[in-house]
From TrEMBL:
Binding of meso-2,6-diaminopimelate, residues: R378, D402, N403, P404, R405, G455, E459
Entry cofactors: Mg(2+)
Gene name of the encoded protein: murE
Pathway: Cell wall biogenesis; peptidoglycan biosynthesis
Residues engaged in binding ATP: G111, T112, N113, G114, K115, T116, S117
UniProt keyword annotations, A-Z: ATP-binding, Cell cycle, Cell division, Cell shape, Cell wall biogenesis/degradation, Cytoplasm, Ligase, Magnesium, Nucleotide-binding, Peptidoglycan synthesis
Protein name: UDP-N-acetylmuramoyl-L-alanyl-D-glutamate--2,6-diaminopimelate ligase
Catalytic activity line of the entry: UDP-N-acetyl-alpha-D-muramoyl-L-alanyl-D-glutamate + meso-2,6-diaminopimelate + ATP = UDP-N-acetyl-alpha-D-muramoyl-L-alanyl-gamma-D-glutamyl-meso-2,6-diaminopimelate + ADP + phosphate + H(+)
Length: 486
């Protein structure tokens, strides 16, 4: 692509060199440079891309986009000066791939919990209705039936545009995308045109990165602030921060709720571990999904699909045949009558939601045994909170290791234990080895008891000191149950 076309509608402060140069690729990692590459120098938290301009030129970069010109220019190289390289990258990527987000209906879902579930459920609902779509989520990236492995919650903006361009090429009309706070803060959605933005909820998470809850809230809000007037913003107004998201948006405002009047209102009529009978906007339907948090997820799916012009009966029919999202309140019953639930809940709010959903359904004659931990190198402040919630709302809480990463698992467990209140001391124990913790839960459980294994959900690894070891909660439960029931 010609550089002059690539810079279309991008505010440029100054250009040194030819602007009709051919660009074969966009790169912001100097190690990945090839011939005729455009290198974008970005100031990161660890390194400043401006330090690698000379190395990028030596490797074949012929165009440099930067915020500061180097002290001396290299002959036959074009330098483009911009105010913010990180934001410019998004617009360059959109232009390079033919602005694909404008050629399909891009739906972004943000919030602390439910992003993956809602994005995946939307993808599945639209498949059930008869549309091939694209999905960009933590668990996987899909274009129709084709699966691309996911590496980040929100991929880099070049990758996003590449995937969306493929989706357009393959005839997709819709794309559903999980929008994380990291992705917003790091400008990974810059230059994308969203048709609908959905908000799930906002609770305690990622404070290791954002430092304060207010900073976290402002980052999420930025997604809605930057929507254009042709977009639709749909928010959960049962969440105290739901209306905050809409305060400065130019988009059309819509709401959904269970507790208050809203454009999309839902109610639970019946619920058990096999599913729920729900009532959305005056219509009854059955779903195999369960838990109040899933009612909110489905209500957002219902609202988004309605705003995209689909008939409500058609949407509810497609929702009623949905299967559960992998690792999200996944249930299975052992032949010994013990009920197992595997869930990704790794924040205080998510854990509380899952435990409340189980406690709402169970008759209290069954015991609830919860196995959980907290990830290492992440927000420390949520650990005692999760210890308090699990010990208070379970018959027995077994505190164990999650993904300790570079931290000592025993230290993480101590921080979780600090939140257990004295009256619940007899209701918890600690076993650092996750496999042994699950084994104890199975040993302790009797027929009809419920065992919740929380925190990892769909993940099939455990990260210890930088090494990922294979570990799948569902596999471990099945393996131990077979071994122990012989």
């Amino acid at each position: 692509m010609q550089l002059i076309d690539l810079l279309n509608r991008i505010p440029v402060l100054e250009i040194y060199g030819e602007n009709n140069r051919e660009v074969s690729e966009l790169v912001f990692d100097s190690r990945k440079i090839s011939e005729n590459t455009l290198y974008i120098a970005i100031r990161g938290t660890v390194a400043d891309g401006h330090s690698f301009i000379t190395a990028a030129i030596e490797k074949g970069a012929t165009t440099i986009v930067c915020e500061e010109f180097p002290e001396s220019f290299t002959e036959n190289i074009t330098y483009v000066k911009v105010k913010d390289s990180s934001k410019t990258l998004g617009h360059l990527a959109s232009n390079y791939y033919g602005n694909p987000s404008q050629k399909l209906k891009l739906i972004g879902v943000t919030g602390t919990n439910g992003k993956t579930s809602v994005s995946t459920l939307l993808f599945d609902v639209f498949k059930n209705i008869g549309y091939d779509s694209a999905l960009l989520s933590t668990v996987e990236i899909r274009i129709g039936d084709k699966i691309i492995p996911a590496t980040h919650t929100t991929p880099d903006v070049i990758t996003i545009n590449k995937i969306l361009a493929q989706a357009v090429e393959e005839g997709c009309e819709f794309a559903f995308m999980e929008v994380s706070s990291h992705g917003i803060a790091q400008n990974r959605i810059e230059g994308l045109t969203f048709k609908i933005a959905g908000f799930t909820n906002l609770t305690h998470d990622h404070l290791d990165y954002h430092k304060t809850f207010n900073e976290y809230l402002k980052t999420k809000k930025r997604f809605f602030d930057e929507l254009n007037e042709n977009a639709i913003a749909i928010t959960n107004i049962d969440d105290k921060n739901g209306n905050v998201m809409l305060q400065n948006t130019k988009a059309q405002k819509k709401s959904y709720a269970l507790k208050t009047m809203a454009d999309y209102h839902g109610r639970i009529l019946e619920a058990d571990f096999n599913g729920m009978l729900l009532y959305f906007n005056g219509k009854e339907f059955w779903t195999t999904l369960t838990g109040k948090f899933n009612v909110y997820n489905l209500l957002l799916v219902f609202g988004i699909a309605s705003e995209l012009g689909f008939q409500q009966d058609e949407i509810l029919q497609a929702i009623s045949i949905l299967k559960r999202v992998s690792g999200r309140f996944e249930t299975f019953k052992s032949d010994g009558g013990i009920f197992f639930i595997v869930d990704y809940a790794h924040t205080p709010d998510a854990l509380e939601n899952v435990l409340d959903s189980i406690n709402d359904i169970r008759t209290k004659n069954e015991r609830l045994i919860t196995v959980f931990g907290c990830g290492g190198d992440r927000d420390h402040s949520k650990r005692p909170e999760m210890g308090n919630i699990a010990s208070k709302k379970s018959t027995l809480a077994i505190i164990t290791s999650d993904n300790p990463r570079s931290e000592d698992p025993n230290q993480i467990i101590k921080e979780i234990e600090a939140g257990v209140e004295p009256q619940n001391f007899s209701k918890y124990t600690s076993i650092p080895d996750r496999r042994e913790a699950i084994k104890m839960a199975i040993k302790f459980a009797e027929p009809k008891d419920i065992v919740l294994v929380a925190g990892k959900g769909h993940e099939n690894y455990q990260e210890i000191n930088g090494v990922k070891h294979h570990f799948d909660d569902k596999e471990v439960i099945n393996e131990l149950w077979k071994m122990m029931s012989k």
